[in-house]
From TrEMBL:
Gene3D superfamilies: Farnesyl Diphosphate Synthase (1.10.600.10). The keyword ATP-binding does not apply. SUPFAM superfamilies: Terpenoid synthases. Its cofactor is Mg(2+). Keywords: Magnesium, Metal-binding, Transferase. CDD domains: Trans_IPPS_HT. Residues 259-269 have a biased composition (Low complexity). This is Polyprenyl synthetase family protein. Belongs to the FPP/GGPP synthase family. Pfam families: polyprenyl_synt (PF00348).
Length: 291
């Protein structure tokens, strides 16, 4: 775990520095409320692991010993900020008062300040992607997918498994894809490799979302760190709700996405390394996690 903790520390250190430089102080407080209240940091970890798996090298205690290494850390922080911005909006839409065991942003500060906080997070994120056109394009494409997914869910709920998976790909898989692509881009990988890493992560993201549905239906809210039963209470589509599958069967569906992710990772032909081992472990972990 020391290997992962060091990479998480790189993200946390850079994230704190980015947030500390924001203005005014009220905005800084809100950005820190969202971004420093916990979180698994899965997406930025995917960025750094993909960077290393694609041949990049993280150097220096702050990750900034080379331009490529510094870009990888910045890209990792940036994708976490984009993710956090989306969570702020999700909580407003869902009227959820709890996120990561603390008050959601709108519950703590109000709806207007929450929307401004989401905008602020996106602004800070895109300032970190500006050094590379490919990075900007990858994230922009992911945000288009995410926005379309959110809009689709509000106006045209999925009624079949295939429609649900497409929604999950847009709402969750797209940001995972961008996270991995950013790592490969920072490592200056070729187009095929970037695409293969992206496909891996997109499948991981879909499995992650399907597992979320299972947890919403079965987990304890205190352990999960957010309210459970939201999907059923809000008549929001989840694979548990729109099919007759049991939570166990739905989890098996998540496992099939995990297996597909592993196949995509193999297609990237990254060789053997600690980073690759952890990427494989992540594909396995997302279908058994309890938070």
């Amino acid at each position: 775990m020391e290997y992962l903790e060091r990479r998480r520390a790189l993200v946390e250190s850079r994230l704190e520095a980015v947030l500390e430089s924001t203005e005014p102080d009220a905005m800084t407080e809100r950005l820190e409320h969202v971004s420093l209240s916990g979180g698994k940091r899965v997406r930025p970890t995917v960025t750094l692991l993909s960077f290393e798996a694609a041949g990049g090298e993280l150097v220096g205690e702050d990750g900034c010993g080379s331009a490529a290494s510094a870009n990888a850390v910045d890209f990792a922080v940036g994708i976490e900020l984009v993710h956090n911005a989306s969570l702020v909006v999700d909580d407003i839409i869902d009227e959820s008062e709890l996120r990561r065991g603390v008050e959601s942003t709108w519950a703590a500060f109000g709806h207007g300040p929450a929307i401004a906080t989401s905008d602020g997070l996106l602004g800070e994120a895109f300032s970190l992607f500006g050094s590379d056109d490919r990075a900007m394009r990858a994230v922009a494409e992911a945000m288009v997918e995410l926005g379309e997914g959110e809009a689709t869910e509000l106006v045209a709920e999925p009624t079949t498994e295939s429609e649900y998976v497409e929604l999950a790909r847009r709402k969750t898989g797209a940001l995972f894809r961008a996270a991995a692509e950013l790592g490969a881009i920072a490592a200056d990988a070729d187009t095929y490799t970037i695409e293969a890493f992206g496909s891996y992560a997109e499948r991981v993201g879909i499995a992650f979302q399907i597992r979320d549905d299972v947890l919403d239906a079965t987990a304890d809210a205190e352990k999960l760190g957010k309210p459970t039963g939201q999907d059923a209470a809000m008549e929001r589509p989840s694979l548990v709700q729109i099919t007759e599958m049991t939570p166990e069967e739905v989890n098996s569906r998540a496992r099939s996405e995990s297996d597909a992710a592993l196949s995509s990772l193999s297609a990237a032909d990254p060789g053997e390394s600690t980073a690759v081992e952890y990427l494989r472990d992540l594909a396995e972990f997302v279908v058994v996690r309890e938070r």
